[in-house]
Amino acid sequence: MGNSGQGNNASILRALGLKAILFPIFVAIAIILGLELGVHLTSFSGLVSTYGIPVGLFFMIYPAMVKIKVNELAKSLTDAKKVGLMVALNYAIDPFLVAGLGYFFFYLIFYKALGLVNLTIASQALVGVILLGAAPCIAMVIVWTDLSRGNLPLGVSFVAWNSIIQIFTTPVYVYLLTRTTVFVNPMLILESVLEYLAIPLAAGVVTRYLLQEKAYFSRVLKVLDNVQTIALLFTIVVIFWGEGYGIVEYPSLIWMMAIVMLTFYFVLFHIGYYTSRKLGYNYADSTAIGYSVAARDFEVSIAIAVTAFAKYTFVPIITAIGPLLEIPLMLILVWVQLTRYRKEAPVLRV
Fold this sequence. Notes:
Layout: H1 2-40, H2 45-66, H3 70-77, H4 80-92, H5 94-113, H6 119-133, H7 141-147, H8 152-178, H9 186-211, H10 217-247, H11 251-278, H12 283-294, H13 298-308, H14 314-344
Helix pairs in contact: 1-10, 1-14, 2-9, 2-10, 3-8, 4-8, 4-12, 5-6, 5-11, 6-13, 6-14, 7-8, 7-12, 8-9, 8-12, 10-14, 11-12, 11-14, 13-14
């Protein structure tokens, strides 16, 4: 029995491949490199954030879009049952569950039980966590779905729906949970949709149209997979270079937020994933639903924090920590899903 378990683990490691096994090391190196550049080349931080992050995100999302067939995307957009499940989980459960986890960790554990923060920091950190939970992601969720072998057209359709719905729901949830009236600028959402959905999707559709009949198309997809990996590491360097220097002044808040975010990522994802499996959906569909439920919209949360909560020092800091930790923490979830993929769907291996 013990030998059988070791054999299964060994086969999973072989299936994951050397690149996947070493990838956490590359992520750690990218984080350290970004922090070092932020310390020694602080004057370039603003420029790096402004131009480097959009470039990195484009080359993370574009390779995924090349894999999408337009007819499958159209079908996913009108799949009422799956879209309805995603909407129910994202808007009836997520904001309240994230707020509850924020209260549990920052108020009951870090403040009450351990005394690691004072009441002011705990209260403001809770507001920051609430803002992070108020709106679902409309960009990186595509990358996580792709890396985990999820249903990409379905994931893209969720992004399209969420980009519309969150304009109306986010102010409601922020008011209910913080008693603060906020305004979500539709232009901010539109800009994100154009930058991280429409443009990469258009580029992917054109690329597929031009090359899908070519004999070397499969090799192009493999090259683009490597481009995506390099872009992911590049984006980590850029984020920590551009945003990390100011945040590392509060190292204790970083590891506290890492605990909170990792918890709500895993809880939210598995609520979506296992609910979908119980309803009879396959691995790919359930993975797309899980990531759509778990990933959060940091751009919206940061925008609200720096406008409606600017006078509270730690609210913007907590929301700014979010994108710093998103990629490393989500990659842990991707690793879990790839392991599950090899166990649950061996016939679908790529």
